[in-house]
Amino acid sequence: MAKEFPQHWATKASLHSNFNDIVFLGSDQPLAVSVSRQGKLFRQWLDTHRLAIPDKGGFIITDDYNPLDSLQAGKAEAYREVLTRRIGMKALLW
Fold this sequence. Notes:
The chain is of the alpha+beta class. The chain is 38% helix and 13% strand. It has 2 domains: 1-58, no CATH class; 66-94. Strands 1-2 form a two-stranded antiparallel ribbon. The mean pLDDT is 80.
């Protein structure tokens, strides 16, 4: 990632759960957060939820190669189980 985006950041909502979406930010320009009070609070949150991005391994997602749907199958099934428990199977069927 660093090769394409010298400025990069990865974060997830909870550091205590593997059941998360990970947000990646990448740019060739410095990543800036507003200096407003909300911006400072957001920056503090980002700092505490930042993930290290390994320098080696991984793969590049392109328009021609995007396996994210298959990689998220387990998460989709977990969401389905939660919905089934909370609202019942009938609500999920049309």
